[in-house]
Amino acid sequence: MDRIDDAQRRKAECRRDFSIAHDYRSEIPSIVEKIVKLHDKEGRFSHIGPEPIPSKESVIGIIDRALRLIYPGYFSKIRLDEVNISFYFGQEVMELFQTLSDQVAFAIQHDCVRFDLPCTRCDERGQSAAASFLNEIPLLQATLAKDVVAAHEGDPASKYYDEIIFGYPGLLAVTIHRMAHQLYEQNVPLIPRIMSEYAHSLTGIDIHPGVHIGEAFFIDHGTGVVIGETTIIGEHVRIYQGVTLGALSLSKDEVERLRGQKRHPTIEDDVIIYANATILGGSTVIGARSVIGGNVWLTESVPPDTTVFLKKPELVFKERQS
């Protein structure tokens, strides 16, 4: 009898749960109506209309495919050898060309329609930008190879190059940055920023796609690094976690006046910047071969061959009482 009573009780509870679920589900049409009615009211943002827009998912796919071309065999889904490499590269390059040209065209169309600009032959520009990007891959490979070597030479914890390519967030961030910068230099809208913010989300390293970075650049550890849009970085520069190469704080009026102007520092060749240093301002130049110590705050230029560091704080050692 107890078993029968338990079964009936469970059935009654299930019916009650179904009834409650039905009551809540019945609210969904009114919720949808409210969202649709208010989606573009009172300053809310939406992108509903005829304007095309790039796909973030497709841009991430472009990054993944480009990684497989820049570092052949490291991120491929199949093992590569001399028998299949030409077929594999042909397929990857064609897929990358098509996806990238489509997304660039969407980004250009987006601006043309949204801001009522004259036609600029977006499909042709998309294909031109994709072809230019693909033509730069051998140069990207050569430049990034120097970044890999710089990472190995600058980090005694690295055992070999494969470890750096597979695992170092600094190299991944710089690799994606060099892709994004290539498109940025071609005046491709939206997509370079999507790339850079994706790298930021993966690595904790925030590099604006407009930043100019020379060869053999190494970010060690990397978490919390911020490099602003108009920063110029020379060759053989090494920076550590928490470094900010930024702009001075601006008022609302100054933001508009300085948009597109030089606002971030210039770092010359062979400079080392240690953890949590902050260097600000468009007229600030860190001279070649200088060393900036950890936690230093700079808003003025430093001559070449200079070491800047904070005076050692007074430490207090107090014996613990048992």
How would you describe this protein?
The chain starts with a helix and ends in a 14-residue tail after the last strand. The chain has helices at 2-25, 28-38, 56-70, 85-114, 122-135, 137-154, 161-167, 169-185, 191-203, 252-258; strands spanning 206-207, 212-213, 218-220, 226-227, 232-233, 238-240, 244-246, 266-267, 272-273, 278-280, 285-286, 291-292, 297-298, 307-308. It has two domains: 51-205, serine acetyltransferase, domain 1 (Orthogonal Bundle), CATH 1.10.3130; 224-311, 3 Solenoid (UDP N-Acetylglucosamine Acyltransferase, domain 1), CATH 2.160.10.10. 48% of the residues lie in helices and 10% in strands. The strands form three sheets. It has a five-stranded parallel β-sheet. Strands 3-6-9-12-14 form a five-stranded parallel β-sheet. The protein contains ten helices and 14 strands. Helix 4 (85-114) packs antiparallel against helix 5.
